[in-house]
Amino acid sequence: MDLLMILRVALRAIWRNKTRSLLTALGIIVGIGAVIAVVAIGQGASTMTLKQINSMGNNLIMIFPASRNTGGVRTGMGGAQTLTADDGDAIVDTISYVSCATPIVRSSGQIIYKENNWSTQVTGVSTSFSDVRNWHIGRGIFFEKSDERKGSRVCVIGQTIVDNLFGDEDPVGKTIRIKNMPFKVLGVMERKGSNNFGQDQDDTIMVPYTTAKRVLQGSIFNNVNMIFVSLHKLEDTEAAKEEITSLLRQRHKLSPRQDDDFDLRDMAEISQTIGSISNLLTILLTTVAAISLLVGGIGIMNIMLVSVTERTREIGLRMAIGATPADILLQFITESILLSSVGGLIGVIVGISGAKAVGSIQNWPILITTSSVVISFLFSAVVGIFFGFYPAFRASRLNPIDCLRYE
């Protein structure tokens, strides 16, 4: 028998039992579809994560006050107030890897404009904030060094504040009240969107950090909640962290036996952590999909064994008219490969459609690669060969005389 004839016979045998063939391939369809969907969603999530991390700033290093012990109770990161705005200035002036830095002073309050009000986060920053965070003004201007020195009551606002307080009205030049104190709106930041934790980055107001300390917090001290540092190049991160650590220990007069009273975090660490979680979830879901493929393969083997039993007389007749054991082996392996390949093809379509559906519903980026589709499809054919070999081998070893006598 030539290959074309074997293929035609295999297709005819599968078509003769359409419902059974579809149910046999169902495990392959689910497994391949799940693999493609999981890989597409996982890679899309990784791409979105990297994009959002990059949106946090240019080669960013974040410096936080360290934890402290109070009465035997450890307060956690940020419990101590050990950082000052002068630390940020010293880092910029001393360390060549650093391009700019900004202190961060956190506050919150009720924002009022005419009859509208909104509760949001108020962040005290320096004039370098736009460069550090790679977040620029969309309308108007950012405040200047003179505003920072004088602690002027000026601010720039995020797009969410505009939507909730001003509607269609241009906010630039208008006066809002923060904690019942008047602030002039100098500009509106470009829309930034949500960060990795689902927090709306546009729901914020930026004021000079000196204003945040003196006016909003009523503090005469120079301590800040954190410092954001931007590097010239990402590859200098480790060297910059070492020099920043050495400089801050010297400025804070820490002895060699004392722990750091600050903590450093960089984007690589955050990206690694999120990437590890994403990879773990992808592995778990892929394992579930692989189990489905295994079940599908076993289903193919079972149905092929049933098919061999049902077609025993047919096998005997073919052998009687000259078919060799190799022809019978190839016949049943071809049927198994066709079953798994058709199931794989349907699984590819289901997986791509499912991934796109999830992406459209959840507003999630989907990245479908040619390699994942091709590998998944080839794997389905391998499943057919692996699980179809034993039934095919068993059929090829049947005695033609016994087959002809089979009832």
What is the gist of this entry?
By secondary structure, the chain is an alpha+beta fold.
| Major sheet size, sense and barrel closure | 6 strands, mixed, barrel
Number of domains: 2
**SS-derived structural category:** alpha+beta
Mean pLDDT, to the nearest integer, reads 80
Q: Calculate Rg over CA atoms.
A: 33 Å
How much of the sequence lies in strands comes to 15-25%
H/E series, N to C? HHEEEHEEHEHEHEEEHEHEHHHHH
Query: How many strands?
Result: 12
Q: Walk across the major sheet and give the strand order.
A: 4-5-10-7-9-8
Number of helices: 13
Anisotropy-based shape: elongated
Helix proportion range: 55-70%
How far apart lie the N and C ends? 26 Å
Low-confidence stretches: 70-78
Protein described:
The protein is an alpha+beta fold and 407 residues long. It folds into 2 domains: 3-52 and 272-405, no CATH class; 97-231, no CATH class. The chain contains 13 helices and 12 strands. Helix 1 (3-16) packs across helix 11, helix 2 (18-55) crosses helix 11 and helix 9 (267-310) packs parallel to helix 12 (370-396). The chain is elongated, with a radius of gyration of 33 Å.
